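Practice set, problem 2.
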Amino acid sequence: MYAITCLLLKHEKAFIFSALTQFLEEKKTQMTLETSKVIGGVGAILMLIGVFPAINYLGILELIGVIMVLIGLHGVGEHFHEPNIFKNALLSVVALIVGVVAAVAIALTVVLTNITNFIYQLYPGWNGDWASLSGLTPDTSQFTSGNFDVTSLYPLVIGVLAVLAIIWIFAIISMFFARRSLNQVKDKSNVGLFGTAGLLLLIGAVLIIAFAIGLILMWIGALLLAIAFFQLKHTEPIPPAAAAYPPPPQTTV
């Protein structure tokens, strides 16, 4: 009788321990998703308000927002066992960074050099010190007398167009990967706003050449992204498919 009682207590302890472990794992998963959706949602909100210069200094709010959205998507991807969610989001950010770096490089090497030549023609007495421009008076007589070299503006215009083209192309590439990531979140979470947000971000990037329309669409896309994050609900993640192994060969005697 004593042995049976000990055996029952042993099995009961094992059952309680197993149930407690499973409960803690479920809570950990739930907390991970809750944390990820809050981080991602707040990040999207920072991206929203980051477009207002009065409260955004040097784009810091937008940068923090992008990083928080990236962290949120990483957590969501881990919850749903879909690493491509984070990979595509990371590719989107990398493409954006590459585009900005390339645009700044061209702006510094081409645009800045040619705008300096233009300023020398407009302010003949300029000594190259940018701070001294405020005290100089432009010589507009060159425009009326025909002495102004219009061809000096061509490299400047080409440089500006090149910068805009690079920003446009890399914005489209970036939003393409962002949409792919958000579509995967939509498929896993059944929150359709993720797909809508990704589509608006991509269309906005394509229409960014129509300055107002493109930026408005991207702003609306960021708004829907914030709402989509907060609509995420805890669902049991689908475990990754186990690898199938062929049956062992049968030998006949």
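Problem 2, part (b): a different protein.
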Amino acid sequence: MTDTFGPLNATTDLETLLKVQTYKDLHGKAVSDIVQSIHNDPSIFKSGATCPFISSSLSTQTLTTQPTSQSLKIRQVDIALIEKGLPHFHAITENYFETRLPDTFNWDEVASRLGKEWAGEWYIVAFRSVRNDRADAKALYEADGLAHKEAIESGGLLKYWYGSLNERRQCLAMCVWSSRDFAKLATRKPYHRLASSLASEMYESYTLERWSLTKHVGETVFHLNQL
């Protein structure tokens, strides 16, 4: 079986995260309209380009969006994590399907790179699956890609990691979110629902794990607790 998926270690681009959410906050537009505006004028993503709806001091501020009645925020510590820590995130074992999440990735290196001065708590969703040998890999790949793009546009997704399928068709995928509320918001989106609807058909079995990721001031380690 040819697997359309390759391993993916994607940190959400900081400029994308800030521009999409700030444009939405300032202009009250739907995310789809914002993304279309960005597609129409891709120059706003070029390094050093001036974006008409972002101030030069934005990276030091707390950004607020209101995708629902509850206000969700991208925090300064999220920005620091994207800039300093997550670019260095990687798996430290090839047997990640059968390894507990705290022992699968270089969490403490990421925490050390983030720095002692930062503290925060994040929300992780991990998806362990055994692929059906008759699964349509192309359909899965397309649904996953659409759901990933949709999650970025929804806001709050900081990292998406996807491993390679092993010889027993086992795999691990994982998302790091700014908060549980951001993750809940994304699950209501249409492409996430589409990807979820394929699960019973495409997988022999699967499990969802939810974890909290915490760091305290003065520490260079993360604390992971399964919820």
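Answer key, part (b): Residues 1-6, 26-32, 42-70 have pLDDT under 50 and may be disordered. The first strand starts at residue 8 and ends at 11.
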